[in-house]
């Protein structure tokens, strides 16, 4: 059961990260800012997603 739960939460995290990256790309932020946000989300999936949610570009 532990593998199924971990896999489920991993899948949810992957979906949220892809959604966050799509939102960053669609935002009106500068190209450099977009690259930094995408790198942060990719390198630190959980922490990057949380930081992006609160402080990321809107638009």
From TrEMBL:
Record localization: Cell membrane
Keyword tags: Cell membrane, Membrane, Transmembrane, Transmembrane helix
UniProt signal peptide: none
Protein name according to UniProt: Phospholipase_D-nuclease N-terminal
Membrane-protein topology: Multi-pass membrane protein
GO CC annotations, alphabetized: plasma membrane
Transmembrane residue ranges: 36-55
Matches recorded under Pfam families: PLDc_N
Record keyword Transmembrane present: yes
Cardiolipin synthase N-terminal domain segment(s): 15-57
